[in-house]
């Protein structure tokens, strides 16, 4: 059984969008500006190559270029989590080793799946994460995400926390996240070093009430979300509730209307990045959806709309 440790990472770790040119090539100049903005806006850390980074549209060579370029540019200013998800335990372990060598503070991994139907049973998932853990000296975050379509019970997650050395952080964004976080913390005890929420913070307040110590949010407004987490952690729940109420319309717009393109649209509007387009076949935001997003954001005056002007 693993010895209990104090949490190494907590707070708001937003997902960094991947920036492209109008022609669909990587735009590393915009990428570096994006990272600088997110750090200036108060992020406790960053996560790269996640689903909200459009990781599924990147080649292996591009993943390596982005990991290297971003980690070199961050240069230790904040810790960076690198998503290394792959169906193969061997490939995922190799991706994770490479991320660690380049300076990642943690890797985030979904359970193995492929398409809509190919899944792995619990013992296979356990062996998968054990193999990834054995390749590393840094923590592994299990991403309990709807995209994988893989049921991960709180008891199974707690078992992995207790028995697999580096598995100690959990991003819970499946249905009923608050109840699952509470049960995971109860069952896993000190082995659950980092119970975190996701889904752009749409359930942030109840998840904090349940014991979440971190949140992986969208990348455009950490200056609005981090004070919620700080106030809650300091015991100022009423302040956290009021701040959450203020920002919830924008969180909702991102989570329910815009998805991964919200951060890019806001960053383009504020002069942070040059192009907000995704890669085909993802469509761009509908102009009216974009208009509603910007209007909702302007009422809150987030840094993203001022940083690059």
Could you characterize the architecture of this molecule?
With 309 residues, the protein is α/β, with parallel strands linked by helices. The chain has a domain at 11-221: TIM Barrel (Alpha-Beta Barrel), CATH 3.20.20. The chain is built from eleven helices and ten strands. The strands form two sheets. An eight-stranded parallel beta sheet has the order 1-10-9-8-7-4-3-2. The longest helix has 22 residues, at 237-258. The model has no long low-confidence stretch (mean pLDDT 96).
Q: Which percent range describes the beta-strand content? A: 5-15%
Element pattern in H and E: EHEHEHEEEHEHEHEHEHHHH
Query: Which CATH first-tier class of the domain at 11-221 would you pick?
Result: Alpha Beta
- On the 0 to 100 scale, the average pLDDT is 96
Shape: globular
End-to-end Cα distance: 52 Å
What is CATH's topology name of the domain at 11-221? Answer: TIM Barrel
Please tell me the CATH architecture of the domain at 11-221 by its name. Alpha-Beta Barrel
Poorly predicted parts:
none
Described by strand count, sense and barrel closure, the largest sheet is: 8 strands, parallel
Q: How would you write the strand order of the largest sheet?
A: 1-10-9-8-7-4-3-2
Q: What is the helix content?
A: 40-55%
Please give the radius of gyration in angstroms: 18 Å
Name of the CATH homologous superfamily of the domain at 11-221: Aldolase class I
- Note the total helix count: 11
* Structural class by secondary-structure content: alpha/beta
Compute the number of strand runs. 10
